[in-house]
Every structure is written in structure tokens, then in C-alpha cells.
Amino acid sequence: MKLCIAQLDLRGKRIFLRADFNVPLSRDEITDDARIRAMIPTLEHCLTNGASVVMGSHLGRPVGRDARYSLKPIAFRLEELLGRPVPLAPDCVGPTAEKLAATLEPGHCLLLENLRFHAEETANEAGFAQALARLADCYVNDAFSVSHRVHASVGGITRFLRPAAAGFLMQRELIALARVLSQPRRPLVLILGGARVSDKLGIIRNLVPHVDRLLIGGAMAFTFLKALGCETGFSPVEPKLIPMAKTILDDARARGMQVMLPEDVIAATYPGDRHRIVTVPAERIPLALAGFDIGPATLIRFRDALRDAGTVVWNGPMGMVEQPPFASGTAELAKIVADCSGLTVAAGGDTVAAIQRAGVADQLGYLSTSGVAFLEALEGRELPGVAALSEMTGQPLAEERP
Ligand code: 3PG
């Protein structure tokens, strides 16, 4: 069992808090602040118990310093939520960051600029990890959603800064995961959607032995449909990944596992086309059209597949939810999942936001801010960022929330 923040004596300590403020932005506007709000309990706990906090996070995948990926909007939002000043250090390492961190009074916090402005972060470079470690006295990881990455602020830093404890959000994620992993009620149904096929295909391959049914929708479905020889029109397909998609389908079939792909899709010539929105069979999408949502026949099939589910894990929207005509497949599926009697878990920002918009968030068992990390952990492997945390000594604690 991992050490938790509730067990740390925080008085007079400076905490390095690894957060995940990788939130969706439209220009400088945060379009979903769930990940920022999820960090507040840990922050408040530190600040009201006599600690000061140095927060580090990534935002996006910048290559070098790039103003579009500045954490400035995050600092503003944190100030609003905390009702305290949240200064932004111009860099995450170096003399200025060190000076700002060293002069932090108890009850005060500092946000570091984007960790990924330095390539050393993703390279897990030891010198960079050590430079981050110099900013604090102990380490708290509350970023389960990035703990599948072997990056300096998630892994390397814990070699130089200990103890390394789990924050409250990390603790909640681990408890939810344990509920799914330890003897899940069967059948275990995994619903996958979204567009990041390249990020998720390897995970799907590894998860096949663990799940009983796999329902695939969203943009990633087209690569699988193509692998089956379907006509996908100009829907997004990743040609390089077709052989792997085929292997996954063959493997699933050999194991007697059910894989369900869309039967019909809502298609249009382009996402903004309000005039020619048609429902077409997923295996024969006309050349001039692309699928942007799952269709009604697919929803019926998915509903039937979920009827007796003991456990449901859902990651990724079923369509282009940011365009209202293509959001209804995801919204309808949210209601179907909410009606399931088994344990239901939604993983990932877009999925959780869609469930909230559908008004059924309180009917799901657990809403995780982590997408890919949650799926990787579902394979049963300990994530590197979790493995790096200190072991708990003494009595295990029940789930604690401040
Ligand atoms: C996420 O949004 O999944 C996490 O913040 C990790 O981001 P990454 O995939 O860019 O490492």
C-alpha cells in the first residue's frame, strides 16, 4: 500500500505537487476545468495544514517553449477556485523558480510553468529531475492520469525527493481501479471511443484477455471497420494501424470474446454540414461522406450488450461531441450506461464531460479524470508513477477525503 498525503506531517514543509492540469483550451479559455477542480482537496489540505506548495504540470505536447502551452490560464483558474494568489514561475527549473519556491510562506503556493517546455521532462533526465527536486522537501503525486509516463516529474524526481506520497485524487483513482481489478463482476464490458487510435491500440491488444465484451465507437472504429474490409468513405482511418487492428479482432475472435463495432453511423460531408446529415450502414459509407457519430441501430446493439454487464468501463466519446448534431450517440449511450445495474466507471475528460452534459453523472459508480492511464492500469500492471511512491508504514488508512 502506498503512502498517502494524509499521513504526512505537513507543518512547515514545502511540497512538490505533481498535478495534471492538461485541460482542454480554446485559445486561452479553459473549456473543461474538471482536472483543476479535482486538485483542490489536496491543495487545500496542504495549505491549511501549514505547508507551502510548488505545483508542476504539463499542458499538451509542446516542442520546446511555446506560449500557446503556457500554464497562465491555469494559474488564473486556480486563483478563482482557491481564493488565494497563485503566482506563475516563468520556468519550472532554474534560479528564479528556486528563489520563488524558497521564499514561499506556509499556506502559499506557486505554479511552475509547463514542465514539457524542457525535453528533459519526457526524457526522464536525472539532472532535470534533481533540479525539480531542489524546489521542495517532499513529493506528492496527484496526477494518476500521467502516471503511465516515465517522465522526470513523475518518476525520476522520486529518486531525489522523498517521501513520495499519493494525493487524495490519486488515492481515489487507485481505490476505484482496485474495485474494477479485484474480481470484477462479469461480464466486464469495455467501451472505447475517441480518436486517439495510435495511443490506444496497444492498450486494447493487452486488454483483450481481461474483458468479456468490447464495444468500439468514435473515430477509432473506422480503422477497425477498414481492417474488416468495410467502405469507410473519408472517415478518419490510420492505415499504418490496420494490421494491428486486424490482429486484435482475430485474437478476440479466437478467445471467444465479443467485439462490437458500429452497425450504422451518422455521416455528413464535413462536421459543419447541417444539411446533408444521413444515417448510413457503417460497412458501406459513401465515398463523399464521413461518419461523425454512431447511429440508432448501433445504440440498440450496444444497449443489448450492456444489459447484463456486471462491470462497465467506458473511455472515449462515440462521436464528434463538440458538434451538436453528432453528440447524441454519446449522450444516449451515457443514459444507457447510467441505467446499468453493475459497477460503471467512466475514464477520461471528454467521456466524463459528455456524461455530465447528459445529466447522468451522479448515476455512475466512478468518474475518473484519467483516460489512457486508467486503461493501462486496467491491464493489471502497476503504473510507473504509482510504483515510484513510498510504501506506507504503519496502519493502512481507509479512503480519506478532507
Ligand atoms: C492525458 O491527458 O491523458 C494526460 O495528461 C497525459 O497526457 P499525454 O498523453 O500527453 O502524456
Features:
six-stranded parallel sheet; Rossmann fold; 2 domains; single chain; 402 residues
| Uncertain spans | 397-402
In CATH terms, the superfamily of the largest domain is Phosphoglycerate kinase, N-terminal domain
Mean pLDDT comes to 95
Give the class-level CATH name of the largest domain. Alpha Beta
Assembly category: single chain
- Annotated CATH topology of the largest domain: Rossmann fold
Largest sheet: spatial strand order: 5-6-4-1-7-8
- As a percent range, the share of strand residues is 15-25%
Distance between the termini: 20 Å
Number of helices: 15
What CATH architecture label of the largest domain applies? 3-Layer(aba) Sandwich
Principal-axis shape:
globular
Q: How would you summarize the topology of this molecule?
A:
Blueprint (H helix, E strand, L loop, with lengths): L13 E5 L6 E2 L2 E2 L3 H4 L2 H9 L3 E5 L15 H11 L5 E2 L5 H8 L6 E4 L6 H4 L3 H8 L4 E4 L22 E3 L1 H14 L6 E5 L4 H11 L5 E4 L4 H7 L3 E2 L9 H13 L3 E3 L3 E5 L9 E4 L2 E2 L4 E5 L1 H11 L4 E5 L12 H12 L3 E5 L1 H9 L8 E3 L3 H7 L5 H4 L15
Bound molecules: 3-phosphoglyceric acid (3PG).
